[in-house]
Specification:
single chain; mainly alpha; 2 helices; 77% helix; 0% strand; elongated
Length: 95
């Protein structure tokens, strides 16, 4: 008997919360950088640093997700091979 992996999907509320949280964090950080008592070059540097941090976080999340999905595919292939071997095996066959 083979197990079919259950595809986990997040709810609309979780998705909405994640989007809202990202928006609030981005706006709060932007306001914080804008209100700093420093010159324009420092604000620009901090803004670029925040953009770099956000894009690298998205890239890291994608790499982790891709690696996890690849592991699930390999696991399913191995499971299919095992099931084929077991189906082809006849324990009562004379050697």
């Amino acid at each position: 008997m083979s197990e079919t992996p259950v595809k986990q999907q997040s709810t609309a509320a979780f998705y909405g919360q994640a989007v809202a949280s990202f928006g609030v964090a981005t706006v709060a950080t932007s306001i914080g950088i804008f209100k700093l008592d420093v010159n324009t070059w420092v604000r620009a540097f901090l803004g670029i640093a925040v953009l770099y941090l956000v894009t690298s976080a998205f890239t890291l999340a994608k790499v982790i997700r891709d690696r996890q999905e690849a592991g699930q595919i390999i696991s399913r292939v191995d499971q299919a091979r095992l099931e084929k071997i077991l189906a082809d095996h006849d324990p009562f066959e004379k050697l």
